[in-house]
Amino acid sequence: MTRSEDFIVIDVLVIGGGNAALCAALMAREAGASVLMLEASPKEWRGGNSQHTRNLRCMHDAPQDVLVEAYPEEEYWQDLLKVTGGETSEHLARLVIRASSNCRDWMRRHGVRFQPPLSGALHVARTNAFFMGGGKALVNAYYRSAQTLGVRVRYETPVAGIVLDGDRFVGARTESGELITARACVLAAGGFESNREWLREAWGRNDRGEWPADNFLIRGTRFNQGVLLKDMMRAGADMIGDPSQGHCVAIDARAPLYDGGICTRIDCVSLGVVVNRDGERFYDEGEDFWPKRYAIWGRLVAQQPGQIGYSIIDRKVIGRFMPPVFPGITANSLPELATRLGVPVEVFMRTLDSYNAACRPGTFNHTILDDCRTEGVVPAKTHWALPIDTPPFYGYALRPGITFTYLSLKVDDTAAVRFGNKPSSNLFVAGEMMAGNVLGKGYTAGVGMSIGTAFGRIAGTRAAAAALGRPA
């Protein structure tokens, strides 16, 4: 039975409620299609992970409204190539990059506001446009616009599976057993980052006998269980990506299990040192600017004993990074700090003494890749290497915080779901469910919103064309 509410027949069904889903719904409605969105969460938690975002990475060849200087296509591509280690589709990545240069006017028409460039510790005024009010404001603006345009939204309606006729979409079966049919469909229901059992399966047991995934915190929504991703896998859809890869950030170990969001991120890592629970450093904290490297630190911490690390700084760098929501553990001496953190004092002091002795004089400047570095210590610290010697000292316990997973449905530039390398004529995908085509590993700030916006708009346009029998 089809529940159509105000529609005799639904043209486009959009499954999901975040940025990509909303972009798809708005584009489909603007193209003249009737649209129904199914959001698994209650209304107050709508928006998926998008409610926790802050910005969009944007290509621009000259200063543009809230963006300073220039961030050309080739530099954007090289930044993405570096963080992914080449595990990306250049064709789709460049599609996203180019789309990021011309989407903001459309976003503004749907109520999204951008804030002027801010000085501070993120150093991304050149590359990223920040949403006024953050991701929650963006999501709310899109929902208001959708309501005005006549898009219908049903909350608390999780979908259990997709009904197909070969490679064609027929309908969606809700968890309550209802079948909702439509002429075309966009899947934008997120990854599987909130599914603990799937995370355990993906990460397995390490050589210490631990299940690393058991210590992961989920930065975003609890509703991204990967149900439709798994359903599409069972249906034989083409897949891409490593299930253990994802946007995984080092966050405050005191963060809640779900929905801690951006304020739980620890942004002082590049300005100090990070030790594991044994008191040993394990990676170059000053490898590159924090917005280009913050997303590797969750995975690095996940590989440490007990999946925990400790970011250590002193008074000299206070005020040079975005403060987290929880204050750090403080002490007037390094041995006292080690004791308060529960780290072996002797090893901790040997690590800090070796690091301090290895710091070479330079001109410290946290806004550039400066010449403050270490010599003769492993791992090296390439930039911003200052001795940690000025009390009070601060320590922040770190845990891996999963934002979203990269196992994805394989697509081309039409956003169509593919079966045996054949694109479906009426089933499309956007957002986290296909982001692994561009992000095989790694991350750089704002690119997830770029992917979701680009492919949400493509998927919505294509779905409307398929539903209405028009050329795409």
Automatic annotation (TrEMBL):
Keywords: FAD, Flavoprotein, Membrane, Oxidoreductase, Transmembrane, Transmembrane helix
Pfam families: FAD_binding_2
Xref: InterPro entries: CobZ, FAD-dep_OxRdtase_2_FAD-bd, FAD-oxidoreductase_2, FAD/NAD-bd_sf, Succ_DH/fumarate_Rdtase_cat_sf
Coiled-coil intervals: none
The protein's name: Tricarballylate dehydrogenase
Transmembrane segments: 7-28
UniProt cofactor(s): FAD
SUPFAM superfamilies according to UniProt: FAD/NAD(P)-binding domain, Succinate dehydrogenase/fumarate reductase flavoprotein, catalytic domain
Domain FAD-dependent oxidoreductase 2 FAD-binding: 11-438
Gene3D superfamilies hit by this protein: FAD/NAD(P)-binding domain (3.50.50.60), Succinate dehydrogenase/fumarate reductase flavoprotein, catalytic domain (3.90.700.10)
Lineage: superkingdom: Bacteria
